[in-house]
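Consortium newsletter contribution from the modelling node. Members have asked for a concrete example of what our holo predictions look like. Here is one, prepared for the NAP complex that several groups have been discussing at recent meetings.
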Amino acid sequence: MNTLKLGWVGLGNMGNPMVMNLLKAGFEVTVFNRTKDKEAPLIEAGATTANSPQELMEKCDVVITMLSNDAAVKEVFESPTGLLSKEYPTKVIINMSTVSPETSRYLASSCSTHNVHFIDAPVSGSVKPAQDGTLVILVGSSTTDYELAKPIFDVLGKTAIHVGEAGVASSAKLAINYLLGLNLQGLAETVLFAESNGVSKEDMLNIINAGACGNGITNIKAPSILNDSYPAAFALKHLVKDLRLAKEAGLDSPLIHPLFNSYAAAEKEGLGDQDVMAILSSLKHKQ
Ligand code: NAP
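And here is the predicted structure:
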């Protein structure tokens, strides 16, 4: 039995399985989601519900946020019934959403003025690792806060890497998602090029994944390419957000601009709520 009382805001594709793992590990978890029906499977599994983020701060030792983007996180922190509606000495907030390094530093500073400890802890890994408890957690915080949160990270991930203060972890997250975007754009372009020259996508995926160019993500995405079906594990709109944040944080490399334009065009074509691998559908229609 874990004695830390946890609160959780944001039960989307990632938040839901992450909370499920905390419940299975014996944590007492109270949840708040804007759309209430997403709380149902967790309440069935033993979670309790709160009426506001503020109520989570009253009841819990540590509150975790897993929300879409910077605006959603700021709203949940700053609304009149938000996490920082009062001072909460000794309480801890962990933001696991992907936001800009600037927003992470801003949240750390706002927390500090409310006597709240803040941990910047975005994750690498999608829905399957979230279900399996094998996320890679990037942590920006004081060493003391990192040690306090470690039992939580041990349930949610296979490793937690303490990279520095708040903001540094968000920078690391934007960097790894740039590599993710490159990988999937490259995979899509390669499969389409091969197909247009008479190589089936089955054969091309086998060639990629049997050789040195295959990796975790090319293996994970192979079934969706074969089925030409892209239900969201990691929604394409979230990658567009992350590439935009990387550009705003100073990434100005040869590939970031065409990469961003490619995913942004796919979002404009209506693929934002599909999985990020739907970039292949967007490119296919341009051939
Ligand atoms: P998601 O499925 O789109 O869920 C987003 C969550 O944010 C939902 O609970 C949503 O509530 C809530 N939300 C959005 N705007 C809100 C607002 N203004 N006020 C209150 N709640 C709000 O997203 P996800 O895939 O779980 O991703 C969450 C975060 O993790 C994102 O920052 C994403 O970039 C990052 N991430 C995702 C993955 C992945 O593979 N999915 C992997 C690594 C990191 P409703 O239910 O009411 O809409």
